[in-house]
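Fold it.
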Amino acid sequence: MPDFACKIEIWKRHFPAKMPLAADVSPERLAQVEDVCGRDIKNAVIDAAMRVARKGKLSVELSDLLNSINRIKSARINILQLDDLSPQTREKISQQVKEALS
């Protein structure tokens, strides 16, 4: 995972110049969010922009971006939860992933 300074730069580089950002949006504040990588940041910017546009809002607010990050993080497969699965269930999931990838 990128460190704080890297996350600031990643956030800055993913905001298009013409993207209307509210005054509360700060790459420094967003970089404080733990457990996000560059892909998560990119997807959060796209997700927030799309949701803001659908709502007809004039600018992307900090809360829009934080909500997008939370949606992305909650959609991840939690590897630790795999330990709680039976061997049969793990095998079934493994087969489904292999089929999806082929």
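The mean pLDDT is 90.
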